[in-house]
Design goal:
The structure is a single chain. By secondary structure, this protein is an alpha+beta fold. Helices cover about 50% and strands about 30% of the residues. The N and C termini lie far apart (about 85 Å).
Length: about 120
């Protein structure tokens, strides 16, 4: 009889311990999942609340980039098009000679619409 009581107590202790471990792991899993969801929501909020820069600001960003990198700043800096969240900015000069004129490209740059980050796509 005493052995049965010991076995019953050990079985109950084992079941309680297993239940606690399972609940702790499940709780930690849901907490981690909640943290990931919160991080994702914060990133999405940041992106959606950022204001887009306009074409004039994109042009100024490229001029600043050229100035900061001690590069030549041509007389014409203009947005060529917008694609996939980036302005494509063309920098060039118009060269005139006896036979007419032509453009002389200095560079092509991408400017992120949200961050204003400039990337020289010719390098």
């Amino acid at each position: 009889m005493r052995l049965q009581k010991v076995m019953l107590a050990a079985t109950m202790f084992f079941m309680i311990t297993i239940t606690i471990l399972i609940n702790t792991d499940t709780l930690e899993h849901f907490k981690a999942k909640k943290d990931v969801n919160n991080d994702t929501n914060n990133i999405i909020e940041t992106i959606s609340t950022n204001e887009k820069i306009n074409t004039d600001e994109a042009i100024n960003k490229v001029k600043e980039y050229l100035y900061d990198t001690d590069s030549y700043i041509p007389s014409i800096v203009e947005v060529d098009n917008v694609s996939e969240g980036k302005y494509l900015v063309h920098t060039y000069e118009i060269i005139k000679n006896e036979g007419g004129e032509h453009t002389s490209t200095v560079g092509w740059f991408e400017v992120d619409i949200y961050t204003g980050k400039v990337t020289d796509i010719m390098k």
